[in-house]
Amino acid sequence: MEKSKLFLLIVLLIDSFLWGVWFGGLWSYRLAFASRLSSDYIHISISYALPLFSSSIVFLVAMRKQLFFRLYRLALFKLSILFSRMLFLVSSILVTINVFDALKLLYVSSAIFSLASGFGSIAGVAWTDYVADNIPDNLKHRYVALDSLLGTIGALAGSSIAGYIFAFEKSLLSYGKLFLVVSTIFLLDTPLIIMLKDYAVKANTVNVYSNAKPATLFYIAIAILFLSLNLPTSLTAPYIIYKLGGDELWITAMNISTFVASIATPIAFSEILKKVKPLTLARISIALSATSTAIFPQLKTVELQVARAFASGAGGIGVWMSLLSHIISEVDSDKRIGHSSTIYLIQNIAPAIATSIGGALADILKNPEPVFYISSMAIASIPMIKTYEHQNKNK
C-alpha cells in the first residue's frame, strides 16, 4: 500500500477510536445526565432529540446540495470536525461550571450540543463519500470492520473513564468532569485530520433523482426500523434510576457490555459480509435488536440487563456495519451522496420523533413499559429491506 494511503487509513482509524471515546463517555451518558436534571420523561426526551433534529437539517441540505458536498467534501470534513469538537468542549465547560439552574442547564447545554452535532453531521456526509472513493475496494469490508471495532474499543475506554469517575462520586460535577475529559480527548487528532488529502478523482456530477423510486421501499423500512427501536430510547436511563433503583454504575456496566459485544462481533460480521449481501446481515441484526429492546422492562437485575445489553450491542453494530457496507460498496458514486444523506436523515429524524413520542406516551400513560413493547414493530421492516436490484425485479 502507498505511504499516503497508509497514512490516510491510520488517521481515519485513530479518529474511529477517538469518536468511540466520545460516544462511550459523553453521548451514552446524556440520558443519565438529563435524568439527574429532570424526572419528567418529556424533558429528557426533548433534550435527547434536539441534536438529532439538528443533524436532520444538515442531511436535508446535503440531499439538495449533493454536488457541493461532493466537490468540497474534504474541506467540509476538516472544518466541520474542528467546529463540532470545539463546541462539544464548550458545552462540557458549561456543565462543569454549572452557571444555570437544572432545567435551564439541560436546555442550554443541549442547544450547544445540537449545534455541534449539526457540524458533526456535515463531517459524516463528507466522510462517507471520501472513504468510499479513497479506501481501495479490496479493503472496504475490512475497513468497515476495523472502523467498528476501534470505535467500540474507544467507546469501552470512554465508559471506563465514566465508571472510574462515578465510582467516587455521582453528582452533576461528575458529569462535568466526564464530559470535559472526553471532549478534550476528542480534539486530539484534529491536526492529523487537517493533514489529510483527497487522492481520488471526484466526479463533477451527481444523479439527484436516480435513487428516488427504486429506494422508496428501502427508506420506508429504515424509517420503520428507527422509529420503532428508538421509541423507548430516552426512557432507559430514567427507568433504571427511578423504576429499578439503579444508578450510573448500572448504566456503565450495561454500556460496557454493549461495547464488548460490539468488539466481539465486527470481525465475525466482516467474514459474513464476504459471503452474504450487507442487507441480509441487516435483517438478522434487526431481529436481534428488536427482541432485546422489547424485553427491557422484564429484566429487573443488573446482571440480566447486562446480558440484554450484550445482545443489543451485537444487533446494533450489525445494523450499522451492514448499512455502511451497503453505502460504500454497493451504491454508485453518482448516487452515494443522495442515498447516504437520505439514510442518515432517517437515522436522525426518526429517533428524534420517536424519542419525543415515547417520552410523551410514558408521561401520559404514567407507565413507560408499553412503549418498550411497541418497539417490537421494528420486525415489520425485515421483509422490506431490499437492494435496488431486488426491488426492480419485483416491479
Automatic annotation (TrEMBL):
Quote the Gene3D superfamilies the UniProt record gives. MFS general substrate transporter like domains
Domain of life according to the entry: Archaea
Keywords in alphabetical order: Membrane, Transmembrane, Transmembrane helix
Q: Which residues cross the membrane?
A: 7-29, 41-63, 75-100, 106-132, 144-166, 178-196, 217-242, 248-269, 305-324, 345-365
Coiled-coil annotated residue ranges, if any = none
The record's annotation in InterPro entries points to:
MFS_trans_sf (IPR036259), Sugar_transport-like (IPR052528)
Question: Can you name this protein?
Answer: MFS transporter
Q: Write down the species.
A: Ignisphaera cupida
